[in-house]
Amino acid sequence: MEREFFLLLATVATGSGFLVVVAKDPIHSALALVACFVQIAALFILLGAPFLAVIQIFVYVGAVMVLFLFVIMMLNVRQEALTRFIPSGAIAAFVVTLVLAVEMGLLLSWSSDLHQLMAPAAEPPSVNALSLALFQDYLLPFEVASVILLVALVGAVILARDDEKADASPRRALHPAQGRVPGRVATPDTMPDILPDNGPDTGREPDNGPGTSGGMRR
Amino acid sequence: MIPLSWYLFLAAVLFVTGAAGVLLRRNVLIVLMSLELMLNSVNINLLAFGHAMQDLRGQIIAIFVIAITAAEVAVALGILVALLRRKHTLEVDDLTVLKG
Amino acid sequence: MESIIVILPLLVKMGIVVAVLLLLPLPLTWLERKIAAHIQQRPGPMRVGWHGLLQPLADAIKLLTKEDHIPMDADRLLFKMAPVVALVPPFVVFVAIPFGEPVQIFGSSYTLALSDMNVGLLFILAVSGIGVFGVILAGWASNSKYAVLGSLRSIAQMISYEIPMGFSVIGVVMLAGSMNLSDIVHAQDGLWNIVYQPIGFFVFFVAGLAEAQRIPFDLPEAEGDLGAGYHTEYSGIRFSLFMLAEYVVMVVLALLNALLFFGGWLGAPPFLPPALWLLLKTGFFIWVFMWFRFTFPRYRYDQLMSIGWKVLLPLSLLNILISGIFMF
């Protein structure tokens, strides 16, 4: 049964990976990537790493891809103006990628050791064993990784913060003349204040807009 | 059961697909997503070897790769949002602010 | 041939779970309307069937016969996909939930869980996080300002409250020494976890309310205030799929509250079979959710976000600290 599962998962992963690179709309690309990540998580279970599989879903699908989709929705740019592939140097890039693919394929098939059958795990390592190894032998990398995550968190907040409160023009993600997709009405440039505390009167309690109970006092 | 080389082939295919995406696509967000694909293929490799050699280190390094990737994506998207606020374009050819 | 013998019980269990979950929202909608009515001192649905028992059926017929309308210039594929993507994760969560002790049928013992995995609790939290995608797709594909606004708020709310929800169960995992839900229930053999983890229960309960987008946290889909949020443009059967997903999420949260903090299926055994204890506790939590809906007003969006980040998250961290100190 494992071979059938692996072939199914590998096929869907390859197909959705291909879709990521080829799709015109970034949202379709992001959704194909989500599908690919879910296949890879299932593959991790086949590889005897259920904890990694769940972490993959938690972090990649649940957090990273949501972040990507958020940013794609916020930075929506007119799709028709954007050709998919870069115009200059595309041929050279394609040739290089092809050479890489052929090289990797040949190296993998020529190596004699790699065709050994994988020993079916007597007992996949428990989460207990994994956590012991992580917190005893690899404690320093763990702490360093948490500091990196903290720095990334602070950095992302500072980078994405808007310092143009003094600007005369209302804060818009894209210039309206450049950004409007024909027919697409709900884009960030037509809705300048997406979140309530980014408007010009932050802190003042809105008295009759969305977010209140329509004027009724509690 | 399943030969190790099958997993490595799959990882190689995903890696090459991601590399093609990084080199060929014009939309910078899709370039970032293809980068994610490449990092995931690396994870498959790590876990495949860890499983074949019954070594826990494959899983541990994969955990660190996932954590660092998440941090990298956060910062990359923060930089993108800050950059695009002024440039108003998502095409890689036009993002030449650092060009000397 | 022998793989069929292995797979058959699994298929039967899957069939039972899916069938029950698809039919469960029907009595739950009736219950919600009746509870609303009696809290507001009015009778509620009384005409369709005895005391309105056939009202959900009438609602279902109405929804299924409505015109299927897709907004102009909407992304058609994503618009059609969104209700399905919203519906699947709550069902997948049931893979890891055990409903009782292993039962003996014809001599061989079957576990009452689709898959009693060792990372069960983490799996449930992770798959609940996938539920965000239905909201994203619904809002974006509708190509409507109310929908996009509502969906962005919904997403921000859901991902913000996933964190205290995850942290609050760490205390439970510490007490049980395992993430396997059956082990967690068995570890409550002496005293239920609510005694050892009152803060954890409070944070998990409130964060669960926010995840399920029930009052007092349902501003993103508040019908009066924001034009129904992310499912503004949906009608008929697509809308009913969203409602179905919402009720299944509520059932999941009630089950988790019962399993993690209230002893699961443990109770005085001679009185009732274990699965029935679990059913009673889950029913209690569903009743509490519905009771809250018609008693509390809803929080404003900035209040909602500040509660998640500034109150629940520090509380859950405090809970981990206190649990660690006590266990040491």
From the alpha-carbon coordinates, what is the Rg of chain A to the nearest angstrom?
24 Å
CATH homologous superfamily grouping of the largest domain in chain A: NADH-ubiquinone/plastoquinone oxidoreductase chain 6, subunit NuoJ
Shape descriptor of chain C reads globular
Kindly identify the CATH topology of the largest domain in chain A: Four Helix Bundle (Hemerythrin (Met), subunit A)
Report the total helices of chain A. 7
What would CATH call the architecture of the largest domain in chain A? Up-down Bundle
Any low-confidence stretches of chain A, pLDDT <50, length ≥5?
Answer: 166-182, 192-218
Which oligomeric state applies? heterotrimer
- Number of structurally distinct domains of chain C: 2
Strand content of chain A: under 5%
> Structural class given helices, strands, pairing of chain A?
mainly alpha
Number of domains of chain A: 3
Describe the largest sheet of chain C: 2 strands, antiparallel
Strand content of chain C: under 5%
The tally of helices of chain C reads 15
Q: Give the integer mean of the pLDDT values of chain C.
A: 87
Distance between the amino and carboxyl termini of chain C: 52 Å
**Low-pLDDT regions of chain C:** none
